[in-house]
Amino acid sequence: MPVIDLRGIKREYRMGGKRGGNASGNTGDPAGENAVVVRALRGIDFSTEAGEFVSVMGPSGSGKSTLMNIIGCLDKPSEGTYSLDGIETSTSDSNTFAYIRNRKIGFVFQSFNLLARTTALENVELPLFYSRSKKDEKQNAMTRRERAIAALKEVGLAERMHHFPSQLSGGQQQRVAIARAMVNDPAFILADEPTGNLDTEMTLEIMGLFQELNRQGKTIIMVTHEPELAAYTKRIITLRDGKLVSDEQVTNRRSALDDLAIWKQEHALLAGEGA
């Protein structure tokens, strides 16, 4: 069974309609007369098996963000079906959507979205707190702490778990966000431009971490507009005008950590020449 299975996904928005009832006759009601229909997605068929690392690409206006919102259960399609780890989401209610987002999807965003006044460890614990059982709160708290520590160790931040976000570099903050995404053992990680706020060195570090997590069996969907980042994934799907126009396996896949080592060597040489 695929982790993600989308069939005939369409998403339409109605904007700027008119309806009578006031002096101008224009209430801006999208269900009214002369509404403009924006077809963001025009019938997407797409599935992902467990253990894949897929990048979603396309120019501005191609439908990437809309597709990400639907895959992340932040929005519903106008037509079509979306099965996530065996759960049909297109007919789910808001409570089921909340459960899916908390238990089935690990989100990683460009802006990190960490709470400034809580430590790295407390940030990683948050998804576990929201999914806790109130039957034995003391045991739950111990389990949350153990799982959050394990997630931070997995991303190489065991020694920084009691630091606040302001005390961490951008790359370290994104590692905390990745640990938070993994702590509930979701069906997949959904990363939206995860290196957009990072420099080259930190970008390669984060892509190397994603590759390592994928080697361990994590399923990752990454939205990006950068072909050089997509080259680190295993599969690239490309959208244009709301349609899926290509779905290709990556050949001659690059290693982000190898590229990072080369980058460091080159910059060490440049620094030596500058001295």
Would you write up a description of this structure?
- By secondary structure, the chain is an alpha/beta fold.
- The protein has a single domain, classed as P-loop containing nucleotide triphosphate hydrolases (Rossmann fold), CATH 3.40.50.300.
- It is built from eight helices and ten strands.
- The strands form two sheets. The protein has a six-stranded mixed β-sheet, with helices on both faces. The protein has a four-stranded antiparallel β-sheet with strand order 2-1-4-5, covered by helices on one side.
- The chain is globular and about 65 Å long.
- The chain starts with a strand and ends with a helix.
Layout of strands and helices, then pairs:
Elements (H helix, E strand, L loop, with lengths): L3 E12 L20 E13 L4 E5 L6 H8 L7 E6 L2 E2 L5 H10 L1 E5 L10 H11 L6 H18 L15 H13 L5 E5 L7 H16 L4 E4 L3 H4 L4 E6 L2 E7 L6 H19 L1
Parallel strand pairs: 3-8, 3-9, 6-7, 7-8
Antiparallel strand pairs: 1-2, 1-4, 4-5, 9-10
Helix pairs in contact: 3-4, 3-5, 4-5, 5-6, 6-8
TL;DR of this structure?
This protein has 275 residues and is of the alpha/beta class. Helix content is 36%, strand content 24%.
Distance between the termini: 58 Å
Please state how the strands of the largest beta sheet are arranged side by side: 6-7-8-3-9-10
> How confident overall, as mean pLDDT?
90
> Which stretches are low in confidence, meaning pLDDT under 50 for 5 or more residues running?
21-26
